[in-house]
Amino acid sequence: MATDAQRIIWVISLLRSTSQDEDKMTPEEPNAERKGLLCGLQSYKLKDVFTWQLFKAIAMGQGLSAAICGTAVTSQYLATDFQLNTPMLQSFLNYSLLCLTYTTILICRRGDGNILQILKKKWWKYFLLGLTDVQANYTVVKAYQYTTLTSIQLLDCFVIPVLMVLSWFFLKTRFRPVHYVAVTVCLVGVGTMVGADLLAGRDQGSSANILLGDGLVLISASLYAVSNVCQEYTVKNLSRVEFLGMVGLFGTLISGIQMAILEHDAVANIQWNWKLALLLAGFALCMYILYSCMPVVVRMTSATAVNLSLLTADLFSLFFGLFLFHYSFSVLYIVSLVAILVGFVMFNAVPTLTADPAPAPAPEEDGHGYQGSVFEVTSTEPVSVEGGEDGDRDCGPKRLTWRQPMSNQLASGEERGTRL
Predict the structure, then answer these.
(1) What is the pTM of this model?
(2) Surface-to-core class of residue 287, CB atoms within 10 Å of its CB (0-12 exposed, 13-18 middle, 19+ buried)
(3) Torsion of CA 101, 104, 110, 116, to 10 degrees
(4) What is the pLDDT of residue 254?
């Protein structure tokens, strides 16, 4: 008869081999980890790519593009029909709406979610975030006074590579080759749209100081990228309401001060009427919808994916311009739209990776933590499986049993034995 020590050694070796066999990946397992090692789309079936989550992300992303289109159309009417060029006033209206809703929610909260607790710990961070967001909006509007629309449309795409770099360093996001291909496809779509504009002779804007204007666009794109990365981190780790409430609070203060300094004469000379007020309200409402809904889509996907989806906003503006401003139609607009949507689908079909390991579970009182498929030997004697519990399994000719420990057993200290 084998000794007790030999029995224990045999049980340990058996359990280790069983654990290693279960950890091996079989071709039949549709495991997310197995998919995570793939760098392309070749192993994905259509049902794995075109999921309800993807269609929802596309629909919500195009809804955001429609909101940006609304801001562009109302701004066009304000500039052409009323000669109104007050970007800080328009931003102030948006931030004020955010402040009235989301900042008020933070005021009414209790505990750590209260606005006083947030300001006490992180006021300077949200101040810098609000300053970045306000200046991003201001510089891109200012760029229209110095450079052409074509330059703005092309250079504004600079936000995407900056976003990917910032996500790599600060969010620890690791992109795969298919993601870079998807971004390239989207940028080709933007180039097609700009080419259609040039062929139609619609190179609007000023050329007073192209170098300065292009520089302002690049600065704006970089500031937007910083704001979007901060947004992604906040909505995925803290809360959407906190992000919008703080941006609304500091955005209102900063844009209000900047408006008083830079636009006090222009605001004082406005000839108010109901059409002008309606256009300003429409602009503020579109911006409010954009700011309120964008964190939801960012949480579903990522800041980079959302910005890829927003590339269609200029196309929507052009489609509206066909009816409102009598633009000429080009089939290249359809090609551009399809290319951007294909690139967006490619980007979201394969998940990104993260460089940070998953956090380990909290240790138990005896210093050992429960980690996944950890086995527990509750006895060194052979145990028969007849009449045993459902979780027992036959482990060979000696008819030993092994079981996975339940979390409540580990927490309460019941049936503690040797964990492998």
Answers:
(1) 0.71
(2) buried
(3) 130
(4) 96
